[in-house]
Fold this protein.
Amino acid sequence: MDHALETLRHLGYRLTPQRRAVWEVVAASSGHLSADEVFRAVEPRLPGIDLSTVYRCLELFWRHGLVAKTDMPGRTATFEADAQPHHHAVCTDCGTVRHLDDAAVEPFVATVSREADVKVNQIVAFGTCSQGPPDCPQWREAHASRTGQRRG
């Protein structure tokens, strides 16, 4: 049995088909998923599952340290199976989220922690991809999906 599901069972939670399916989608992903994205992946396997159930499962996983939750101002929260604290860069044009190298960010984190007298858990840097739209492949793909166009 997967470590996360075993942890939930050990904490006294039932391993419902919904919790299993949501966990399997998040664990299989290599990126950041919104609750909507998880819902779209789970719903064909569990017809009738509610989006609210997916949210509750993700929040349960997050509360028990099984997933990382990234809240970014003006954006939908995303979840990933890498529950270790880490930092992100977000393209404001295409929405791509990339992990930042901890070693590169740590001096900045130490400075902010010291000067602001806070324990920094996460840094999120906003900017635009180096290529910029419309040359950014992620921007083109995101724009095509929003407008119903597909690249050929």
In short: The radius of gyration is 18 Å. The CA atoms of residues 68 and 87 lie 11 Å apart. The domain at 87-147 is CATH 3.30.1490.190 (Dna Ligase; domain 1).
